Amino acid sequence: MHIVVCIKQVPDSAQIRIHPVTNTIMRQGVPAIINPFDLFSLEEALRLKDKVGARVTVLTMGPPMAETSLRKALSLGADDAVLLTDRKFAGSDTLATSYALTSAIQKLAEEDPVDIVFCGKQTVDGDTAQVGPGIATRLGFEQLTYITKIEDLNTASKEIVVQRRSEGGVQVLKTKLPCMITMLEGTNTIRFGKMDDLFRAARYELKTWSRDFTGAEEGRVGLKGSPTVVSKVFVPKPRAEKAKMIVADADTSEAMAAAAIDAIFAAQPKLAGDLLARAAAGL
To answer: The Electron transfer flavoprotein alpha/beta-subunit N-terminal domain covers which part of the protein (predicted)?
Structure first.
């Protein structure tokens, strides 16, 4: 079984700053990390490797510095890593990114057919949640999104059973492989790397692929293949109104609730009349 995990190196969202004049993200001096949502998918892929003996390949598209994230994934137990890097990929939106990653996955499948593709639910920088489903659509794989648990994987029948979180509760889904899975955050605990894997990650000869090597069409990647345009990035203006402290007559929940209700009605003079009218109308 061959599992591909797509990860992305992103700036640490806790330290991102917005330029006050240009309203663009200031990446200088901000440490780069593996997208936190991708780590849950990586851990789940490694658990399947431990369970059924799968081969795990980690794939990322980005600048040469993204090598750091790939070596981190290798130190956690991934078997192989591929860096998709080319100046012609620069400026790719989610449509172009999913196409480029699909081209790389198809290249990997020429050597060893891919059974499962794992992606993070979304990235903390783009926050679109579009790349995983885009890859599945291009590959013709079944899409299993917002997965909280993999209940069973039958390698003989090539079937997988998962739990998917939905608005109405939890869905139990069963489908045939190959498929694409996005894991929800908090569904597992990221492991610590073993000493042997740490040494192997440091010595690993990273595979670096260009656009030409994957066979991706030039007009479908980078700015040429990206119809999405981000016109502006800005920091929301702080609200001028300050929070009000409500003091209750007594230190009890009933008194606090009554004081809060009185404050709401005082701030919204028409609210009492509206509620009475709705009650009279039976609404």
So the answer is: 22-218
The 10s digit of each residue's pLDDT in 66-118 is: 999 999 999 999 999 999 999 999 889 999 999 999 999 999 999 999 999 99
Yes or no: say if 119 and 131 are a contact pair by the CB < 8 Å rule.
yes
Where along the chain do its domains lie? 2-220, 238-283
CB 67 within 8 Å of CB 206: yes
> What would the 3-class secondary structure string for 12-32 be?
CHHHCEECCCCCCEECCCCCE
Q: What is the C-alpha radius of gyration for the chain, rounded to an integer number of angstroms?
A: 24
CA angle, 48 then 109 then 74, to 5°: 45
Tokens of 249: 């007559």
What is the C-alpha to C-alpha distance for residues 221 and 86, in angstroms, rounded to an integer?
Answer: 10
Main-chain phi, psi angles of 180, to 5 degrees: -115, 130
CATH superfamily of 2-220: HUPs (3.40.50.620)
| Paired strand residues for 169 | 166
Residue of 198, 225, 209, 222 whose CA lies nearest to 64: 209
Residues 6+ apart with CB under 8 A from 65: 9, 32
pLDDT digits (tens, 9 = 90+) for 118-127: 999 999 888 8
Reply yes or no on whether the pLDDT at 245 is more than 90.
Answer: no
What is the C-alpha separation between 12 and 242, in angstroms, rounded?
30
Structure tokens at 264: 């709401």
Q: Provide the b/e sequence for 95-124 (b: ≥16 CB within 10 Å).
A: bbbbbbbbbbbebbeeeeebbbbbbbbbbb
